[in-house]
Predict the structure.
Amino acid sequence: MKLICIGRNYAAHIAELENERPVDPVVFIKPDSSVLPKEQDFYIPEFSDDVHHEVELLVKIKKVGKHIDPKFSNLYYDEIGLGIDFTARDLQSKLKEKGLPWEKAKGFDGAAVIGKWVSKDRYTDLENLSFVLEKNGEVVQDGNSSLMLWPIDELISYVSKFFTLKKGDIIFTGTPAGVSKVQSGDVLEGRIEGDSFFKVNVK
Ligand code: ZN
């Protein structure tokens, strides 16, 4: 199983990190060892002083596909979820400066929170889904899939040009604005349309 992550998919988040707007989606992979086991606490790794939360809508691939046309993307997933792409921003900045790969900053153990899954049929319009991340009960990230530069079906098509998608693969679709540093003691809870998808304690 692989985690395919999209960077810079929301204009306001690109602006907050002073990144350039990409011509194509930014794509990177997290290893399966980065998945935070269910119900476990997230431990800030000792190599970072600045781990950020990035709440993201998730899509679970249900069958093998490659070179998928966007109009058929909907046949490759049934389930939608919500998760966190934890990012060691200090390490990532150093790697970016040197033009090096980001994996250490994004693929470390526990860096991928995957909440519960629900049927996509639960929602009438996947291109207008609101979701939030609450930190200690306060909304810190407030997103809507309508603000994605590339919607889900286009992302699936794009990534399938490079990687064969397999059953169980998960796509992290990018984070909206509002990323910030987490601290020991924080409680992070993610919701889609008000419904809780995960709750994680930071240690
Ligand atoms: Zn992300």
